[in-house]
Amino acid sequence: MLSKTAYSESRATTIEDLISEISEVGTLMIRGAQAFKLLREAIVTFQQTAGVTVTFTPESEPRLRDYLVVGSLSAAEGAVLGCVLGLLAGALFDRPVDGLMLGLGAGAIVGAAHGIGRVNEGWRITVRWDADNVPLALVSTSQL
Questions:
Q1: What is the per-residue pLDDT across 44-67, written as a single tens digit (0 to 9) for each?
Q2: Which pTM was predicted?
Q3: Domains of the chain, with CATH numbers?
Protein backbone atom coordinates (compact mmCIF):
# COMPACT_ATOMS: atom_id res chain seq x y z
CA MET A 1 0.00 0.00 0.00
CA LEU A 2 1.28 3.48 -0.84
CA SER A 3 1.83 6.14 1.78
CA LYS A 4 -0.86 8.79 2.30
CA THR A 5 1.03 11.36 0.23
CA ALA A 6 -1.20 13.01 -2.38
CA TYR A 7 -0.16 12.23 -5.94
CA SER A 8 -1.49 13.58 -9.20
CA GLU A 9 -3.28 10.92 -11.19
CA SER A 10 -2.48 10.75 -14.87
CA ARG A 11 -5.16 11.75 -17.37
CA ALA A 12 -2.93 11.12 -20.39
CA THR A 13 -4.34 9.27 -23.38
CA THR A 14 -1.22 9.31 -25.57
CA ILE A 15 2.39 8.34 -25.01
CA GLU A 16 3.55 11.91 -25.63
CA ASP A 17 1.05 13.31 -23.12
CA LEU A 18 2.14 10.80 -20.47
CA ILE A 19 5.84 11.59 -20.94
CA SER A 20 5.08 15.32 -20.74
CA GLU A 21 2.94 14.87 -17.63
CA ILE A 22 5.67 12.93 -15.83
CA SER A 23 8.29 15.52 -16.77
CA GLU A 24 6.09 18.41 -15.60
CA VAL A 25 4.69 16.92 -12.38
CA GLY A 26 7.69 14.82 -11.26
CA THR A 27 5.62 12.05 -9.63
CA LEU A 28 2.48 10.75 -11.23
CA MET A 29 0.08 7.95 -10.30
CA ILE A 30 -0.80 5.49 -13.05
CA ARG A 31 -3.91 3.37 -12.35
CA GLY A 32 -5.65 0.59 -14.25
CA ALA A 33 -4.87 -1.83 -17.06
CA GLN A 34 -5.23 0.64 -19.94
CA ALA A 35 -2.98 3.16 -18.19
CA PHE A 36 -0.39 0.42 -17.57
CA LYS A 37 -0.37 -0.42 -21.27
CA LEU A 38 0.22 3.25 -22.06
CA LEU A 39 2.98 3.39 -19.43
CA ARG A 40 4.72 0.35 -20.93
CA GLU A 41 4.67 2.00 -24.36
CA ALA A 42 5.86 5.31 -22.89
CA ILE A 43 8.81 3.58 -21.19
CA VAL A 44 9.98 2.11 -24.48
CA THR A 45 9.54 5.44 -26.28
CA PHE A 46 11.29 7.37 -23.49
CA GLN A 47 14.28 5.02 -23.48
CA GLN A 48 14.63 5.06 -27.26
CA THR A 49 14.21 8.79 -27.79
CA ALA A 50 15.94 10.15 -24.70
CA GLY A 51 18.56 7.42 -24.31
CA VAL A 52 18.12 7.32 -20.54
CA THR A 53 17.58 4.60 -17.99
CA VAL A 54 14.22 3.61 -16.50
CA THR A 55 14.47 1.68 -13.24
CA PHE A 56 11.82 -0.41 -11.49
CA THR A 57 12.29 -0.03 -7.76
CA PRO A 58 11.95 -2.66 -5.05
CA GLU A 59 10.71 -1.66 -1.59
CA SER A 60 14.05 -0.13 -0.69
CA GLU A 61 15.51 2.97 -2.28
CA PRO A 62 17.51 1.80 -5.31
CA ARG A 63 19.52 4.95 -6.09
CA LEU A 64 22.82 3.73 -4.72
CA ARG A 65 22.48 0.43 -6.53
CA ASP A 66 21.61 2.25 -9.76
CA TYR A 67 24.62 4.51 -9.46
CA LEU A 68 26.89 1.55 -8.81
CA VAL A 69 25.47 -0.72 -11.50
CA VAL A 70 24.83 1.79 -14.29
CA GLY A 71 27.87 3.88 -13.42
CA SER A 72 30.12 0.82 -13.30
CA LEU A 73 28.89 -0.57 -16.59
CA SER A 74 29.31 2.80 -18.28
CA ALA A 75 32.77 3.18 -16.74
CA ALA A 76 33.75 -0.21 -18.14
CA GLU A 77 32.45 0.72 -21.59
CA GLY A 78 34.32 4.02 -21.43
CA ALA A 79 37.49 2.29 -20.26
CA VAL A 80 37.44 -0.11 -23.21
CA LEU A 81 36.96 2.71 -25.69
CA GLY A 82 39.60 4.79 -23.88
CA CYS A 83 42.08 1.90 -24.06
CA VAL A 84 41.68 1.60 -27.80
CA LEU A 85 41.98 5.34 -28.40
CA GLY A 86 44.84 5.64 -25.91
CA LEU A 87 46.71 2.76 -27.52
CA LEU A 88 46.38 4.37 -30.93
CA ALA A 89 47.49 7.76 -29.62
CA GLY A 90 50.34 6.19 -27.66
CA ALA A 91 51.51 4.30 -30.74
CA LEU A 92 51.87 7.60 -32.59
CA PHE A 93 54.41 8.71 -29.95
CA ASP A 94 56.08 5.30 -29.57
CA ARG A 95 54.58 4.92 -26.06
CA PRO A 96 51.62 2.57 -26.55
CA VAL A 97 51.49 1.36 -22.92
CA ASP A 98 51.40 4.91 -21.57
CA GLY A 99 48.66 5.82 -24.05
CA LEU A 100 46.72 2.72 -23.11
CA MET A 101 46.88 3.51 -19.39
CA LEU A 102 45.96 7.16 -19.91
CA GLY A 103 43.06 6.16 -22.16
CA LEU A 104 41.91 3.58 -19.61
CA GLY A 105 41.71 6.13 -16.80
CA ALA A 106 40.18 8.91 -18.85
CA GLY A 107 37.67 6.57 -20.48
CA ALA A 108 36.58 5.13 -17.13
CA ILE A 109 36.03 8.61 -15.67
CA VAL A 110 34.06 9.84 -18.67
CA GLY A 111 32.06 6.59 -18.83
CA ALA A 112 31.17 6.73 -15.12
CA ALA A 113 30.05 10.34 -15.43
CA HIS A 114 27.90 9.40 -18.43
CA GLY A 115 26.34 6.49 -16.49
CA ILE A 116 25.52 8.69 -13.51
CA GLY A 117 23.94 11.21 -15.86
CA ARG A 118 21.76 8.46 -17.35
CA VAL A 119 20.57 7.48 -13.86
CA ASN A 120 19.84 11.13 -12.97
CA GLU A 121 17.77 11.60 -16.13
CA GLY A 122 15.83 8.33 -15.80
CA TRP A 123 12.54 7.42 -14.17
CA ARG A 124 11.76 5.56 -10.94
CA ILE A 125 8.69 3.32 -11.03
CA THR A 126 6.97 1.85 -7.99
CA VAL A 127 4.19 -0.65 -8.72
CA ARG A 128 1.54 -1.63 -6.15
CA TRP A 129 -2.06 -2.84 -5.81
CA ASP A 130 -4.41 -0.21 -4.42
CA ALA A 131 -7.11 -0.87 -1.79
CA ASP A 132 -9.56 -1.99 -4.52
CA ASN A 133 -7.01 -4.47 -5.93
CA VAL A 134 -6.42 -2.29 -9.02
CA PRO A 135 -2.83 -2.09 -10.29
CA LEU A 136 -1.26 1.31 -9.78
CA ALA A 137 2.15 2.77 -10.51
CA LEU A 138 3.93 5.87 -9.30
CA VAL A 139 6.35 7.25 -11.86
CA SER A 140 8.90 9.79 -10.67
CA THR A 141 11.77 11.60 -12.29
CA SER A 142 15.15 10.56 -10.87
CA GLN A 143 16.15 13.73 -9.12
CA LEU A 144 18.34 13.66 -6.02
A1: 788 778 777 776 666 545 666 676
A2: 0.55
A3: 8-52+122-141 (3.30.1370), 64-117 (no CATH)
